[in-house]
Amino acid sequence: MVDQTEEVSGPTMKVDSNNIRTFHPAKIFNDSTMPIIGMDFHMNGKVLVVSSLDDSLNLYNCETGTKNRSINSKKYGVGKVRFDRDDNAVLHTSTKVDNTVRYLSLTENKYVRYFLGHTKTVISLQVSALCNVFASASKDKTARIWDLRLNNCQGLVHFSNESVVGFDPEGLIFAAACAAEESVKLFDLRNFDKGPFADLEIKNPVPGSTWHDIKFSNDGTNIMVNSNSTYALCFESLETGPVQRLNVENPTNAQIGGTFTPCGKYAFVGNDGKTLPVFEIDKAQLAMGEAGVASSFETPAYAQLPTPNHQNAIMNIVFNPKYMHVAVASQTLEFWIPDIPESATPR
């Protein structure tokens, strides 16, 4: 892999207008027998965990591009999955028996703790950069804040319908988005009990569609919301303003994924067609609008990257936090990298 950060050993590689068009599959894995519904890189960039509807967790070594091991959870099933700060433990939601979030030790292959409280399926799970904090959201119309050391939730938000949750890169801002309310609420974790410090009005461009993921750009200035329809949305994170609509093909109403590049200038967005679209984030236009006025604009895809190995919708896309490497998944998992110039530092 190629490092994104500066190293003594030589020049490094950055995403730019030229190499963004050259991303392609370098490794292909067909370890899952059903669609992949969750995946997460550890913050060190060395390990990827993948969850599938076949009740399996698969772990991959991102330095060697090989599969490490599989763990099955036939009793409880696995839904969304996230690494803890320790790369030897993960949190995952359950698809069977109950709606518990489970904390799994990968070294001991046993559950360390159970987080009970949700009364329906948990559909969103995110871990904060702050030690021991994570969030979940459920079809029970609640979002919850948890401490890894405690079984009971430490914060609760009610919505009129299901929501999704996320954290800014510093882990201090908690975001909860609800498509039915056309709202993105932002909370300061240090003053969570005071309620949201901002409530962004974000119009749902396709009435009845749902939002299933929310992500901040690495600099924290922009937010992306992904849907089960033909769009993803991008907007500034601190006030209602212009919204950039990123249009994709999605005839099956799959829960398409998306990810910002580390620089925040581009976004890969899932698709149920023959390509993976890449969009240029128009930061200038996002910042131009009048505060409090949620106008919208559309931009064509900057590039359409072929995806011949995917027979189903691409529902998960995650950019490695350390290396120039994107994980792209439907039922098939791929590691994508750009063409690498000779001057770049090999990893």
Task: Give a topology summary.
Elements: E1 24-29, E2 36-41, E3 47-52, E4 56-61, E5 66-72, E6 81-83, E7 89-92, E8 101-105, E9 110-115, E10 122-127, E11 133-138, E12 142-147, E13 155-158, E14 164-167, E15 173-178, E16 183-188, E17 198-201, E18 211-216, E19 222-227, E20 231-236, E21 243-247, E22 258-260, E23 266-269, E24 275-280, H1 283-288, E25 296-298, E26 303-306, E27 316-319, E28 326-329, E29 333-337
Parallel strand pairs: 21-25
Antiparallel strand pairs: 1-29, 2-3, 3-4, 4-5, 6-7, 7-8, 8-9, 10-11, 11-12, 12-13, 14-15, 15-16, 16-17, 18-19, 19-20, 20-21, 22-23, 23-24, 24-26, 27-28, 28-29
Summarize the structure.
The protein is an all-beta fold and 347 residues long. It has 1 helix and 29 strands.
Task: Give an account of the 3D structure.
The protein is mainly β. It has a single domain (23-338), classed as YVTN repeat-like/Quinoprotein amine dehydrogenase (Methylamine Dehydrogenase, Chain H). The protein is built from 1 helix and 29 strands. A 5-stranded mixed sheet has the order 18-19-20-21-25. The longest helix has 6 residues, at 283-288. The chain is globular and about 50 Å long. Mean pLDDT is 90; it is low at 5-11. Its main location: nucleus. One of its GO terms (cellular component) is Set1C/COMPASS complex. This is WD_REPEATS_REGION domain-containing protein. InterPro entries: Swd2/WDR82, WD40/YVTN_repeat-like_dom_sf, WD40_repeat_dom_sf, WD40_rpt. Keywords: Nucleus, Repeat, WD repeat.
